[in-house]
């Protein structure tokens, strides 16, 4: 499975669980760590975990098992490392505090099509 396919299923899962202000950045040729970075916000800690679970469910449905999750049950930020795609899920307050988007300013921001 290529990184674009992984990005597609991750974005679908985020959309299905109503992630807010979702942004994706194409970092190919810019970062050696990942091809794509995604950031989204959740209205609550419960929604944050629902989005993460939806991404993992999509990974399993696509027979993709190469992932890791960083963060705990009480976290306001979860990172899902899908290899060449990294998804960051924040509560609104945590996202504003960390402002990760500034790290990816050299990448190309992708247009995300909402279903």
Structure report:
- By secondary structure, the protein is an alpha+beta fold.
- It has one domain: 2-Layer Sandwich (Beta Polymerase, domain 2), CATH 3.30.460.10.
- Helix content is 33%, strand content 28%.
- It has 3 helices and 6 strands; from the N terminus they run H-E-E-H-E-E-E-H-E.
- Strands 3-4-5-2-1-6 form a 6-stranded mixed β-sheet.
- A hairpin with a 3-residue loop joins strand 4 and strand 5.
- Helix 1 packs across helix 2.
- The longest helix is centred in the middle third of the chain and has 17 residues.
- The protein is globular and about 35 Å long.
- The model has no long low-confidence stretch (mean pLDDT 94).
- Belongs to the Iojap/RsfS family.
- Keywords: Cytoplasm, Repressor, Translation regulation.
- InterPro entries: Iojap/RsfS/C7orf30, NT_sf.
Offer a few descriptive terms.
single chain, alpha+beta, 3 helices, 115 residues, Beta Polymerase, domain 2, 28% strand
Mean pLDDT: 94
CATH architecture: 2-Layer Sandwich
Q: Strand arrangement, largest sheet?
A: 3-4-5-2-1-6
Would you identify the CATH H-level superfamily? Beta Polymerase, domain 2
Low-confidence runs of at least 5 consecutive residues = none
SSE arrangement, N to C: HEEHEEEHE
The value of Rg in angstroms is 13 Å
CATH class: Alpha Beta
Distance separating the two termini = 23 Å
Beta-strand share of residues: 25-35%
Count of alpha/pi helices: 3
Q: What is the CATH topology classification name?
A: Beta Polymerase, domain 2
């Amino acid at each position: 499975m290529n990184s674009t396919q992984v990005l597609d299923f991750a974005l679908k899962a985020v959309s299905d669980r109503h992630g807010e202000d979702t942004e994706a950045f194409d970092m190919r040729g810019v970062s050696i760590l990942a091809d794509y970075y995604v950031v989204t916000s959740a209205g609550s800690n419960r929604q944050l975990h629902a989005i993460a679970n939806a991404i993992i469910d999509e990974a399993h449905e696509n027979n993709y098992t190469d992932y890791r999750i960083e963060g705990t049950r009480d976290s306001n930020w979860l990172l899902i490392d899908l290899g060449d795609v990294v998804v960051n899920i924040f509560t609104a307050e945590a996202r504003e505090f960390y402002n990760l988007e500034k790290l990816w300013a050299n990448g190309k921001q992708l247009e995300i099509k909402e279903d």
